[in-house]
Amino acid sequence: MELSKIEKFIDKQKVSFICSIDEENHPNVKAMLKPRKRNGLKEFYFSTNTSSMRVKQYKNNPNASIYFYHKGLLKYVGVMLKGKMEVLTDQETKNLIWKKGDIIFYKKGVTDPDYCVLKFTTENGRYYCDLKTENFDIQ
């Protein structure tokens, strides 16, 4: 499995799914826009509201997964990455992924206290395509 092939696949997706663990130890899945930034398959950055339920869940339990998929007419491709999610509120990181249009969601701009960054760090993953699955590790 070429990891570069998975990177290219992820870059083409417009939606991603993030999974957190709630206080009853159940998984919670949420659709998100694609990551704002990524470093290979090791690190992914998402923007979200500091006041969100997910932020609370990740602070209580950083275990997480993210998922990307594409369903074509004849072909389904999916990538699940497992790892840890951090909640980052430092200004440098917030500046790193801020986009002009974010002002719609964060009225006070890039310094809005309700704007934060979710940083996902991958430990391993699973790739599915053409009825075949393959596990892989990320160093």
Oligomeric nature of the chains: single chain
Largest sheet: 8 strands, antiparallel
Runs in which pLDDT lies below 50 for 5 or more consecutive residues are none
What's the overall average pLDDT, rounded? 96
**Helix percentage:** 10-25%
Query: Helix tally?
Result: 3
- Given helix and strand content, the structural type is alpha+beta
CA-based shape: globular
Report the span from N to C terminus: 15 Å
Number of strands: 8
CA-based gyration radius: 15 Å
Compile the SSE list and pairings.
Layout: H1 3-12, E1 15-21, E2 27-33, E3 37-39, E4 43-49, H2 53-60, E5 63-71, E6 76-88, H3 91-97, E7 115-129, E8 132-137
Antiparallel strand pairs: 1-2, 1-5, 3-4, 4-7, 5-6, 6-7, 7-8
Describe the structure.
This protein has three helices and eight strands, in the order H-E-E-E-E-H-E-E-H-E-E. By secondary structure, the protein is an alpha+beta fold. Strands 1, 2, 3, 4, 5, 6, 7 and 8 form an eight-stranded antiparallel β-sheet that branches. The two termini are 15 Å apart. The mean pLDDT is 96.
Question: Which features does this protein show?
Answer:
139 residues; alpha+beta; eight-stranded antiparallel sheet; 3 helices; 48% strand
Short description:
With 139 residues, the protein is an alpha+beta fold. Helix content is 18%, strand content 48%.
